[in-house]
Design goal:
The chain contains one helix and nine strands; from the N terminus they run ββββαβββββ. The protein is mainly beta.
Length: 138
């Protein structure tokens, strides 16, 4: 089953392309149709002055009927599509999973301390190695 790849960033809620020396991960989440009117794609509300999406908005809005839904409620219904190359067995595969950020513990290489970060965790289909798609750290 081949996953459909996005043609532009306008059709995505989230997109990332990560690579380390052993692992490659590409993840994207498509925007969904409005549950009320079914015509428009849900997205962040636009700023009336600039016409750009409000990045920090806590809700998603349909551009056609102006239907609003909270960010948490909307993002929990989405599916993330992931293409990966496993760092352990070097197999490449595609997988779909629920788009839900979970807290995981990892060791910070700079400080040597454990820290909690948001991540989407999937398992390799061949060797069951944990593959994490982490949020960008600031």
């Amino acid at each position: 089953m081949a996953l459909r790849e996005p043609e532009s960033m306008d059709e995505c809620v989230y997109f990332t392309n990560r690579a380390t020396e052993k692992c490659k991960v590409r993840a994207w989440v498509f925007r969904e149709q409005c549950p009320k009117c079914g015509k428009g794609l849900m997205g962040k509300p636009k700023d009336s002055k600039t016409g750009r999406a409000k990045i920090r908005a806590e809700e998603y809005e349909c551009p056609e009927c102006k239907y609003n839904v909270s960010k948490d409620e909307y993002e929990n219904t989405l599916t993330v599509n992931i293409q990966y190359t496993c760092p352990k067995c070097n197999s490449s595969d595609e997988i779909s999973a629920p788009f839900q950020w979970k807290k995981i513990q990892r060791l910070n290489e700079e400080t040597g301390k454990k820290q909690s970060i948001d991540s989407i965790r999937v398992l390799c289909s061949k060797c069951n190695e944990k593959i994490d798609v982490t949020k960008k750290m600031r």
